[in-house]
Design goal:
Layout: E1 10-13, E2 19-25, E3 28-34, H1 37-54, H2 64-75, H3 81-99, H4 109-121, H5 125-145, H6 171-180, H7 187-196, H8 200-204, E4 211-212, E5 217-220, E6 223-227, E7 230-234, E8 243-246, H9 249-269, H10 290-304, H11 311-324, H12 329-336, H13 341-347, H14 349-368
Antiparallel strand pairs: 1-2, 2-3, 4-5, 5-8, 6-7
Helix pairs in contact: 2-3, 2-5, 3-5, 4-5, 7-9, 7-11, 11-14, 12-13
Length: 370
């Protein structure tokens, strides 16, 4: 029998049919497995190439938890604070409890696939998709750093998530809501949400210097979120997010009412007033949490017997009304701060389709008149 040379590795088939390849370098041995002889050989070759480049085998002590910590730390400067917090929460709740202690060298596609399958079975399709994305990005970094040989997610079935079509109000329901909530302290905010199409975080970050009452415009420059108990202001996701929006007269009047309300609150608070310069605040001038607005909107919907709508739903209502009214998609995309009109098309395809059917009817009438 020929004697194996140093660094050549070994290959054999187990009783259960799987193929096993191993390599020993500098006193350390790594073993890889394959369903076929060719697959095991490919992994062995990858180990050999790694050893030639690095002079050693991959570190067997690093775990999935180590990788996620390193990836989050590396990604932090390029992520928005809210996004980073969401990613960290997803890792802590759904990945680390199941796979955090698994050594990277032993992480297989089946580990990730089983985790994703369990989330889907539990009705958490959106979470399953996010877990896949986070794993894929973290492992891509691990490959680049030489921590693992391959990205295990390349051999995982990517989960599919289809968001439910968002419910929006009819013009009649919108009228019922605005009339029924006219006395509510958050009424100006809701009017502005419908009139501008801005995101809730963008509205809560507005300062009075962003508002031009004479021209009837507001300028979106940043967004506000509460992360780990602290208020965090951040720039819009894309350049398109920083924009100036023309307002209907009703929204301008709502802003004037908000300014008067705030002046009254400022006098009442006296020295306890917190001057953040914000348009929408609490009773002492402090920033508002999104959850305060969301819960208040939900309660008012229930009180008025209307289908429940979120603050983001008011943004969708704004966009749908514009599209159904015939405003071109690029103009709607500009108001919403979407990076491209294609983003708008993908979200509001139902409204665009209805408008397209109106175009078909116009053409039909023209053809029939010939």
């Amino acid at each position: 029998m020929r004697k194996r040379r140093h660094g050549e590795g070994s290959l054999y088939q187990r009783g259960d049919g799987r193929w096993v390849a191993s390599l020993r370098v500098a006193g350390k041995r790594r073993t890889v497995y394959g369903r076929t002889r060719q697959e095991a050989l490919q992994k062995l070759k990858a180990l050999q190439e790694w050893a030639e480049r690095q002079g050693e085998l991959p570190d067997a002590k690093r775990t999935v938890g180590d990788l996620l910590d390193a990836w989050l730390e590396t990604s932090a400067p390029s992520l928005r604070p809210r996004t980073l917090a969401d990613y960290r929460r997803t890792c802590e709740r759904h990945i680390l409890p199941k796979l955090g202690n698994v050594p990277l060298c032993k992480l297989t596609p089946s580990h990730i696939q089983r985790l994703i399958n369990a989330l889907q079975k539990a009705g958490k399709a959106r979470t399953a998709q996010l877990v896949y994305v986070l794993f894929h990005r973290a492992l891509r970094l691990a490959v680049m750093w030489g921590w693992v040989l391959e990205n295990a997610c390349e051999r995982v079935v990517r989960p599919v998530y289809h968001a439910e079509r968002r419910q929006i109000w009819t013009p009649e329901e919108l009228s019922t809501f605005l009339e029924g909530t006219r006395g509510h302290w958050l009424w100006p905010l809701w009017v502005l949400a419908v009139g501008s199409g801005a995101r809730l975080g963008e509205l809560l970050a507005l300062t009075w210097s962003d508002v031009d009452m004479e021209r009837g415009t507001l300028t979106i420059r940043r967004t506000l979120h509460r992360v780990n108990g602290e208020y965090v202001f951040a720039a819009p996701k894309t350049r398109a997010g920083e924009r100036t929006i023309a307002l209907p007269a009703e929204a301008v009047q709502a802003l004037k009412r908000q300014r008067a309300w705030q002046a009254q609150r400022r006098l009442r608070a006296g020295g306890e007033w917190q001057d953040w310069g914000l348009v929408f605040t609490g009773e002492r001038g402090q920033p508002l949490c999104q959850s305060v607005v969301q819960h208040a909107l939900k309660r008012e919907c229930q009180r008025l017997g209307l289908p429940e709508l979120t603050p983001h739903g008011l943004r969708h209502l704004h966009a749908s009304l514009l599209l159904e009214g015939g405003l071109a998609v690029p103009q709607v995309a500009k108001r919403l701060g979407h990076a491209t009109p294609q983003v708008t098309m993908s979200i509001y395809a139902h409204a665009v389709d209805r408008h397209d059917r109106q175009a078909v009817e116009i053409i039909r009438r023209v053809l029939e008149a010939r």
